[in-house]
C-alpha cells in the first residue's frame, strides 16, 4: 500500500513539473506537399517571450506572415497563456526540406524549436492549400496598432489607433471586439469610433482598404519602456472555396478569423529637472491661466465668486490648481471644481476651474494675492510660468473695526495712542422719546372665554401627542444604524450620479459622466487622485479598506462598461441598467467603507 502511495505521489509531482515547464514548439499544417501548394508553420509558446527569431526557411519563399496571435484565458481558476507566430511558405524546389530552429528568450533563458522535415513532391492537379480558407485571410488581413508618438514625456498625450487592413482580394462582412483594451501604466480615454468608414491606404507598399476599429488617448503615468498590449478582434471573411456553382463560378464561404494587433512599446521620458519650478504640479501641455472675480465692489455680508481657471490643451484632469488665499477679514469656502473638456486624436482640450465663494465681514479694501501657475510645454521642452495680478476687493458698507494706531517702541512693544476728546452733548439726544403718551381706550371685544381663547388653550394639548409620536419616530430612525447607512449611501449615489442621469439617452455624454461620477466618488471617499485611478490600483485600495471581492468586481465591471460602450452602440435600456448598477455599487461601497 505504501509503495502505491509513493508511486502515485511521484507521478503527480512529475506531472506538475511537466505542466509548469516552458513549451516552445514548431508545427506544420502538412509534412507532404506538392510544389504548387502552400504550407503553414506555427511557432507556439506557453509563456510570453522576447526577441523571437524565426529560422531562415531555406528552400521556401515566405508568402504570408509573420502573424501574431495571443491568448490569455482563465479556465477553472487557472490561467492559460499561448502566443503563436505563423508563417505561410511556398516551396521553391522539390525534395526533402528542413525548417530550421526558431529561437525565443523566455525569463532569461533561450529556447529553440525542434527542426521539422517536409517532403516537397510533384505539382498536384488540385492544390489543397493554394486557396485555403485559412491561408487567404492570414495573407490578406492585418490588424495594426499605430501610435502618434513613440518617445513622449511623462503625462504627454499619445494617441493609439487600431486599424484593420483588408486586401482587395477578400471581403469582410462583420467584426467583433474580443476583449476590453486595458492600459495599466496609462491614464486612458477611449475616443469615439462608432462611425466606421472604409478608407483607401497602403500596407507594406501594397494597396489596401482599412477601417479604424478603436481609438484611445493615453497619458503615460510611468517613465521608461511601457508596453501596449495587443488587442484581438474576430472578423468574418468571405473567401473563395474549392467548390463551383453549376455555372462554373467560385462559391465563397464565410470564415471567422481571429486577428491580433502587434505589440507596441513606448519609451517615456521623464520631465527635466533643470528649470523645474517649485510650484509645478504636473501640468503638461499648452495652457492659459487666470483668476476672475465675479465682482470687486460689494457690501459686507454679500458674497462673490472667484474662479481660478486653466484652459488649453494637455492633461487637464491630472494636475491640481494653485490654492487661493485671502485676508482673514474675508471668509472663504471650499472650492467647487468644474471640468469642461473633451478628448480627440489631438489630445484633451477645454478648461478646469475651481470656484471659491468669498464673503467679507467688514468694510474696507482687501487685496487677494495673485497666483502663479507652472506647466511643462513638450513642444519647446521648457517649463513656463504664468502669474496673475493682485485683486482688490472694495467693501463699501458694513461694520468698521476700531482702528489701532500702534507704534513699536525700542523693546518691540506696542504703545497705544492715548489722545482722547471730551464727548459733547447737544441736549436733544432724547428727542425721540415721547413724554406725553396721550393714550386712548380701545373698544375691543373681550378675549376671555372667546372662541380664540379656547382654541389657543386646547391646541397645545392636541399638539403634545403628535410631538411625542414624532419624537419616537425620530428616535427610532436615529437608532436604525443600517437604515441610516442605506439612506446616506443612496443620497450619496444620487449626488454623484445626477449628471449621468441627466444625460440618459446621449450615449457618449452618459458614459463619460458615469465614469467621472465613479472616479469623483473615490476621490471624495478615499482621497484617490485621478492619476492613480488604474483598475489595478482601485482594486488594491478597495481591498485594503475591507470591501468584499464581489463589490470590487462590480465596480471594475462598471468602469469597463464605460470604456467599452464608448465605441459600441448601447440602447436606452442598457444605459438604464448601467446607471442602476452604478447606484447600487456606490450605495454598497459606502455602507462597507
TrEMBL record:
The chain crosses the membrane at residues 451-470. This is BatD family protein. The keyword NADP does not apply. InterPro entries: BatD. Residues 1-20 form the signal peptide. Keywords: Membrane, Signal, Transmembrane, Transmembrane helix.
